[in-house]
Amino acid sequence: VQLQASGGGLAQPGGSLRLSCVASGRTSSNNGMGWFRQAPGKEREFVAAINWRGGSPSYADSVKGRFTISRDNAKNVMYLQMNSLKVEDTAVYYCASARGAWASTTRNDYAYWGQGTQVTVSS
């Protein structure tokens, strides 16, 4: 499974971006998927996850109410709509495919990772 994340860039505080993650190769729509992020000098942290059917979304407290995760299994694509962006959202964002079908918040539950896309929030 190969994952390709895109959609990052520069946004102003309060602005919006939409990230996409396209899966290719031996893909399976039976796996949960998620987004993680890593800021400079910090550990990679959970952002959002979704189960294999596109339900049961889970969010980190820091993004709850601002970010929305979704997926389109027919197109093998997962999205992360990010609204009301804050400076502290600046990080490299990674998409990942889980070993199981659920929306896991645990990094070790993910088997495949994309290369990351940079999100910078600055005025």
Structure commentary:
- Helices cover 0% and strands 48% of the residues.
- It is mainly beta.
- Strands 2, 4, 5, 6, 9, 10 and 11 form a seven-stranded mixed beta sheet that branches. It has a four-stranded antiparallel beta sheet with strand order 1-3-8-7, with no helix packed on it.
- Strand 4 (33-38) and strand 5 (45-50) form a beta hairpin.
- It starts with a strand and ends with a strand.
List keywords for this structure.
123 residues, mainly beta, seven-stranded mixed β-sheet, four-stranded antiparallel β-sheet
Shape: globular
For the sheet with most strands, the description reads:
7 strands, mixed
Order of helices and strands: EEEEEEEEEEE
Structural class: mainly beta
Compute the CA-based radius of gyration. 13 Å
Low-confidence stretches: none
- Write down how many β-strands occur, each being a DSSP E stretch of 2 or more residues: 11
**What does the average pLDDT come to?**
95
Please report the number of helical segments: 0
* Fraction of residues in β-strands: over 45%
Helical percentage: under 10%
Instruction: Report how far the terminal alpha carbons are from each other.
Output: 37 Å
Short description, anyone?
This protein is mainly β.
Task: Give the SSE layout.
Elements: E1 2-6, E2 9-11, E3 17-24, E4 33-38, E5 45-50, E6 58-59, E7 67-72, E8 77-82, E9 91-98, E10 110-113, E11 117-121
Parallel strand pairs: 2-11
Antiparallel strand pairs: 1-3, 3-8, 4-5, 4-9, 5-6, 7-8, 9-10, 9-11
